[in-house]
Amino acid sequence: MEESREWKKLPIAGLPYKLSLEYRTGDWRALRPVIDYSKCTSCMLCWLFCPDMAILWDGKKVWINYDYCKGCGICEHECPLGAIRMVPEGGE
Ligand code: SF4
Ligand code: SF4
After folding, report:
1. Where do the domains of the chain lie?
2. Which is deepest, 33, 41, 63, 88, by most CB within 10 Å?
């Protein structure tokens, strides 16, 4: 029978050891979502579907926290009005 491994014996890179607030998990994004506010009706569907809670509401409009957006494109796919477009990082 295989000996169980204690978590303290795992290599340090094998476990996140800081709060995610201390990481900018959007650093490795290749595509970034851009909101076209002329189409957006603030329906908040993108907020509901974003797996990283990177879409926020400031009381007037939704906006994207690029520190944490990983560029998955789910918001673009779910926006019923086509108000979100994924563009290459650094391209616009
Ligand atoms: S889903 Fe589209 S229309 Fe709705 S808040 Fe998000 S960007 Fe705006
Ligand atoms: S691209 Fe993905 S992570 Fe970024 S705001 Fe849209 S749903 Fe959230």
Report:
1. 25-88
2. 33
**Residue 42: what residue type?**
S
Ligand 2 within 6 A of 50 CB?
yes
Q: Is the pTM of this model over 0.85?
A: no
Consecutive H or E run containing 33: strand 31-35
Interval between CA 80 and ligand 2 midpoint (Å):
15
Using CA positions, which residue lies closest to atom 8 of ligand 2? 50
What architecture is the 25-88 domain classified under in CATH?
A: 2-Layer Sandwich (3.30)
Tell how far CA 50 is from the center of its chain. Answer: 6
44 contacts 59 by C-beta, under 8 angstroms: no
Residues 8-61 pLDDT 10s = 776 666 666 677 777 788 888 999 999 999 999 999 999 999 999 999 999 999
User: Among all ligands shown, which has an atom nearest to the Cα of 47?
Assistant: 1
What pLDDT does residue 30 have?
Answer: 93
